[in-house]
Description:
Blueprint: H1 3-34, H2 42-71, H3 80-109, H4 122-148, H5 158-180, H6 186-221
Helix pairs in contact: 1-2, 1-6, 2-3, 3-4, 4-5, 5-6
Amino acid sequence: MGRAELLRRWVLANTVGETLGLGATGLLAWLVVGRSAEPSAVGAVLAGFAIVVLSGAVEATVVGLLQHRAVHPWLPGLTRRAWWWATLWGALTAYVLGYLPSTVVSLLSVDGDAAPVPEPPQGVVVLAAAGLGLVAGAVLAWAQTLVLRHHVARAWRWVPANMLAWAVGMPMIFVGMDLAFRDGGVVRTAAVVVATLASAGAVVGVINGSFLTRMVLPTLEA
């Protein structure tokens, strides 16, 4: 089982994992928060923030378990519990940092008369998403790196691998979601969402998986 097989399994795991996990997380957040009335109290804003962050556990669980299944034949000493736990804490930390700015803005505008902020140009959104991906990638990877260091050499490479992967994947998600929720029927919206998440998951898997194969196989071949 060489690099090509490991990469194939890894990309498939990330494609399915992000489609199901991130899709379920987004749906849960929309059902609980998105359909409710505009928050008018500090408690409502904080409750929404907590619900959205905790929903990230769904994505972390699905993605973490599928990733472990993909890489386990090459790293039999890596336990499912350790990888899931690391993925969970990295994801929850990333969700906190990712949703904190918008939550602060909402808190500042509670019971206020501030004018709505105009939507920024698409180019600015893409650049901001890439920046968010760099930060989120580092945060998502740090806990996994603490686990990987017991199984591979130079495990620190997992952090820049995920920074690069999510700097590409995050703009794909932002642009895809914008396209999905423009005027269109439910079927079209669902199809675009699924295609977006699957494509982003595959791209992220190809990029960080290319690093992973070079981290794992030399260890086994030594």
